Amino acid sequence: MKQYLINTWQAIYTVLVGMKITFKHLFVPSVTIQYPDVKQPMVDRVRNRLFVNMDDCIGCDQCARACPVNCIEIETVKSVPPEDLGKTSQGKKKALWVTKFDIDIAKCCYCSLCVYPCPTDCIYMTDSYEFSEFERNDLIYKFATLTPEETEEKKANFEKFQAEKEAKKAAAAAAKAKAAAESKPDDKKE
Q1: Burial 94-129 (b: 16+ CB within 10 A, else e)
Q2: Mapping DSSP to helix (H, G, I), strand (E, B) and coil, where does residue 93 land?
Q3: Which residue positions in the chain have pLDDT lower than 50?
Q4: What is the pLDDT of residue 105?
Q5: What is the pLDDT of residue 185?
Q6: Beta bridge partners of 190
Q7: Alpha carbon distances (Å) from 27 to 21, 22, 23, 30, 88
Q8: Running DSSP on this structure, what letter comes out for residue 58?
Q9: For residue 128, which of 30, 44, 158, 187 sits 20 to 30 Å off, Cα-Cα?
Q10: Distance (Å, rounded) from C-alpha 157 to C-alpha 79?
Q11: What is the structure's pLDDT at 122?
Q12: Of 15, 186, 44, which Cα lies nearest the Cα of 125?
């Protein structure tokens, strides 16, 4: 009988210790945040969705190389000499057209390693954390500002510029070879 009472007391004591937190909150009014309308404030260094300010992007590809999961895809085209791409907000001159800048948020591990190597601070983590989608392809964010037609035009302009440059180089080499060939018979005459 004595052991029975000891076991009963230990069981009641264990339940009371386990329910201590519950009893503490039982008589305190609950605070419920009305989520869609009221949101929790985010801490300063939170890592959520990536954003790219394309006005500051110089297409250096450093963020894509720093990404451990390869979720950033960048394609660039060099500008031809008469084109002026402008400058970034920090005064750095742009030399590349960024034709593709895609970030696959489904692959992103939110490590923020892509943010630090950016020389113009154009890529950064935002405090937006609500970006669920029904389709996985909707998680690929496209930041490039050029339309597909403009992209093809920039590529064609660069290829045309390269072809003209090669033609000038070939013409200069041919002229140099012709001048060298004309000077050799003169050397034989002497």
Answers
A1: bebbbbebbbbbeebeeebebbeebebebbebeeee
A2: strand
A3: 190
A4: 92
A5: 59
A6: none
A7: 11, 9, 7, 9, 58
A8: -
A9: 30
A10: 8
A11: 92
A12: 44
Provide the pLDDT for residue 91. Answer: 85
* Alpha carbons 19 and 12: distance in angstroms, whole number: 10
Distance CA 140, CA 127 (A): 18
pLDDT value of residue 179: 83
Contacts of 117 (CB under 8 A, 6+ apart): 62, 63, 65, 66
Q: How far apart are CA 74 and CA 146, in angstroms?
A: 13
Distance CA 143, CA 100 (A): 7
Q: Which of 60, 76, 77, 75 is nearest to 162 (CA)?
A: 77
CATH classification number, 50-150, choose in 2.60.120.1440, 3.30.70.3270, 2.30.30.140, 1.10.10.60: 3.30.70.3270
Task: Render the burial of 28-47: b for 16+ CB within 10 Å, e for the rest.
Answer: eeeeeeeeeeeeeeeeeeee
Determine the Cα–Cα distance for residues 54 and 170; give it in Å rounded to an integer.
Answer: 38
